[in-house]
């Protein structure tokens, strides 16, 4: 339903509802409908410049000289919208959250941080990480353990393997997305075939066909960049990286049984370069993931005076204290594939650890998990938790829950205490000042009014709030 509402808002120009869906509900603004169109395209087509600007500011993908970019420019209803697209240079996908998963992998590839292998393609060196390539492609995993075993510089001399094509394929393996010049498409197809990536070959061919058909149907439009981004690329990418998490977890904590993994765990652990010890359990991990995803771990791992020593395998070992193995298990899973199972027993401890380890994305996951466990008795505690850990979506959910269950919640003593605390936080209160939690509840009460009976119900609940404020001696 949220996705249908997203497209509807972009077609009608409902910026307030759009802001709610993107900032509160965190819907994906780069989704496509059955006509292969994005929310940004409809906003451009329908002439809603402020919606276009909002989407660009929040990471709508519309790169210049690509199929999507040229389509938006061609379909834009007004010159103002075209100027808006140009002013953002239509490359606003780089405005994505710093901790977003695909962005993290893009930065990892771009920086080459803790890379353990480099490819020399006709004189051009391309750094990479064996763990990522091995997890993504069996072809690479096999070569790293046989022909390329122990080699940190690998020369690719075949005349048909072009540096730019190989770089584009590596980009796809890291991010699930590929950008290349239209004229290099055939070179990329050859490299993809050599790397035994039949799905990528199919994706490139389909994207090339779609782009050429668009050019022929729109005289004067020139697309120079080919973009390949399969609809299911993110789940496939995370599923492959989850293999690394499975091999990093000690056998005593793993739910996998021998023979289930897609490759030999002992082989995959050859690529590990850091060991964390938690409650006596050894987690064989990779510096690149921990350093790039968390500034805390980067400082810990790269500190020459840190609490670490060398094992017989020359892998640094760091002992983590004040954290349990089940909680660190969640941290490892999140760092590798952006997801983890959060039970009622561990979610708060994981939230505290995520805050300590500077993992805002994991904090949001914990916030989502807490949303599904809300009841009358814990809703006020969850509001306090949301504010303590800066989780606005959780706080908004709790305020909406209170608005829907006001008769029960208003009887709770801790709710009255919360109202008084919010009132005391407004210093030198004036007549126009208001109480945060009361404002939020009133908003959600008014937001559901659709019929006359809804209006009567809302009026009744608003009177309940007024009565509570009067009983507390507050002017809200």
Automatic annotation (TrEMBL):
Keyword vocabulary terms for this entry: ANK repeat, Repeat
A Pfam family: Ank_2
Repeat (ANK) residue spans along the chain: 35-67
Protein name: BTB domain-containing protein
Organism the protein comes from: Pomacea canaliculata
Gene3D superfamilies (alphabetical): Ankyrin repeat-containing domain (1.25.40.20), Potassium Channel Kv1.1, Chain A (3.30.710.10)
BTB domain residues: 115-182, 272-344
CDD domains: BACK_ABTB1_BPOZ, BTB1_POZ_ABTB1_BPOZ1, BTB2_POZ_ABTB1_BPOZ1
Gene Ontology cellular-component annotations: cytoplasm; ubiquitin ligase complex
